[in-house]
Amino acid sequence: MAALTAVLAVTAQFFGIAPPAQAAPPAGACHTPEPARSAVPAQPWAQQALDPRRAWPHSRGGGVLVAVVDSGVDADHPQLQRPGKVLPGRDFYLAGSYPGAFDCVSHGTGVAAIVAADPVAGIGFHGVAPDARILPVRISDRDVGDQGEALRIDPQVVANGIRYAADQGARVLNLSLAGHEDFAVIRDAVAYAVARDVLVVAAAGNAQRDATTELPSYPASYPGVLAVGAVDIDGARIQGSQVGRYVDLVAPGAKVLTATRVAGHAYVDGTSFAAPFVTGTAALVRSAWPGLSAAEVAQRLMATAAPARGGQGSPAYGAGLVDPYRAVTDGLDPQKPAALPAFVPSPPDQARLDREARDERTATIATWLTVAAVTGVVLAALIAVIVPRGRRRRWRPVRAAAVPDQPTVVEPPEQVFLISEP
């Protein structure tokens, strides 16, 4: 089947025609499907700001399977249709044995595209890790709102999807959903994935109404989950991005461009679309550093994050803005630093010390000799001046002129008149 798909894709590209759809929704699966949108050629600000292309010479995410537990993925999108990129996956939302490789609302397609969309000519948008493979796990239709908030998703369905992704060998798992309730089945499913060395990335949520109140967020708050908030083009937290100690990183989440079902693009907002930027970066790291555990990958992502407005460890910004290039290329060592050897001073160089002492004594003697010589010259000059004068006076003292008792008064001259008296 994969070979046939590849042949069809190559043939379609050669003749300039669109390949036949392989991920069309099953009949009746989409009751109110999202309408098709136009392609957007402009390069989006998020791709310019993070610039994941700089990391591609070192890693493109090859060999890493990323699970997108969401509304499905339209595997027919031109930037996702490369053979082998999007696996069939599974649909846990509809009863039956449907795949997860179709989408009615574009939410999951947008998330998957931010993670791994291929660059194509004439389109500025591309994913962070284009060589990563996507495992679509469909757990909702319109139960995920436009901002990625959980509305009516069955917790058991979400848990089933998470466990399935972990069992299929996913190395990174994206959960672009959030809620205020702590469901035991989802918590246990996340723990199941974490125990199997899956890096779970979750959206922080979009329910924030002020800048200080910490709201609960699940699955973002579960142990082992990397929680992602959203920032705008200026690096400021978007209004709805939730604030809490569970926020680990931030990524673009305001007016970011992504793919939509039926070959289009759209600008979207929310932490749902910030999370896949971190998920894609995690795929780059897991490909470049295969020996790192999921916890070490998460630590690396936070350690290499760019500074954000909130400062280190901020409840609104976490460790900062995710940086794909640094996350891949920084030569971090996950091992603890080795202890420094004890300091052993080297023995003194006695010959050098003796030589310096002799030089210092010689300099001191030369200084004193110079002072003595100058003093002798001054004394000789004084003697040469004083002795002849003393001989001429026969060494008699010279009396100074007496000082008068009263000062001499100088009288002014008589007045001189230019005009005679009358």
TrEMBL record:
Record localization: Cell membrane
Cellular component (GO) terms are: plasma membrane
Q: Where is the signal peptide?
A: 1-23
**Catalytic residues, chain numbering:** 70, 107, 272
State the annotated membrane topology for this chain. Single-pass membrane protein
Protein name as catalogued: Type VII secretion-associated serine protease mycosin
What is any Pfam family matched here? Peptidase_S8
Write out the entry's keywords from A to Z: Cell membrane, Hydrolase, Membrane, Protease, Serine protease, Signal, Transmembrane, Transmembrane helix
Q: Which family does it belong to?
A: Belongs to the peptidase S8 family.
Which GO terms of type biological process are on file?
Answer: proteolysis
Cite the GO molecular-function annotations of the record: serine-type endopeptidase activity
- Gene3D superfamilies assigned to the protein according to its UniProt record, in alphabetical order: Peptidase S8/S53 domain
What parts of the sequence cross the membrane?
365-387
Q: What PANTHER family does its record include?
A: CEREVISIN-RELATED, PEPTIDASE S8
Record-annotated Peptidase S8/S53 domain positions: 61-320
Supply the InterPro entries for this chain. Peptidase_S8/S53_dom, Peptidase_S8/S53_dom_sf, Peptidase_S8_Asp-AS, Peptidase_S8_Ser-AS, Peptidase_S8_subtilisin-like, Peptidase_S8_subtilisin-rel, T7SS_pept_S8A_mycosin
